[in-house]
């Protein structure tokens, strides 16, 4: 497993100018041997994402918004499980998705067509924004008094790439579906390469991505929707009208934000 030195223990002497915040080392099994993330104590302000992205990358830290949700739960209360998390690079995205698909294929699919359809191709059309620029723009829409998530807080995570952020903190949001979040992060890496995703926000059991190169045809969207179903069946099974084609058209086609929730 390839890892980088964790810069969080020396954050106070790193020279980074941060708002008041705390290092989080609380896990389901007790105190972890090193901090897993830094999280601000107050709601994020406009410009915070871009500023922390610029500053954090110099020391190996990546930004992510943290959503406390209706229960006001922050990472120290998230039952983080770093001890159960492997390394994303040790897993193959297509193998992971095929395994998920074969175990959860939608009931409405014709049995003759129920085999894993394979990875969706890279969309034919280029995206309008660079991945990091789009992530920053979407983060801006989330924060502030009028934002989509006005109470969300900024966090910094020691990770090589945005797709690795959930695994880097031992996030257990999908625990009822997958105990090793690194397997999901292997898929996020593939989406990062094909669709220009960035992890913008994490909640207790929610994940929000920016997508700089989304599908632009219905055929492309249907192929991606199959991956979404394999990755997070609850997005379709627990969200009316429970139809993969409708999901492809409404939630995937041309959409620059992908959101996931695990029961």
What does this structure look like?
This protein is an alpha+beta fold and 263 residues long. 30% of the residues lie in helices and 16% in strands. The strands form two sheets. It has a seven-stranded mixed beta sheet, sandwiched between helices. Strands 2-3 form a two-stranded antiparallel ribbon. Strand 7 and strand 8 form a beta hairpin. Helix 2 crosses helix 6 and helix 6 crosses helix 8. The longest helix is centred in the last third of the chain and has 15 residues. It starts with 20 loop residues before the first strand and ends with a strand. 44% of the residues are buried. The model has no long low-confidence stretch (mean pLDDT 94).
Terminal residue distance: 30 Å
Sheet with the most strands: spatial strand order: 1-4-6-5-7-8-9
Number of strands: 9
Query: Helix tally?
Result: 8
The helix/strand order is EEEEHEHHEHHEEHHHE
Largest sheet: 7 strands, mixed
Strand content: 15-25%
What proportion of the residues is helical, as a percent range? Answer: 25-40%
Arithmetic mean pLDDT: 94
Q: Structural class of the helices, strands and pairings?
A: alpha+beta
Unreliable stretches: none
Shape: globular
Radius of gyration: 18 Å
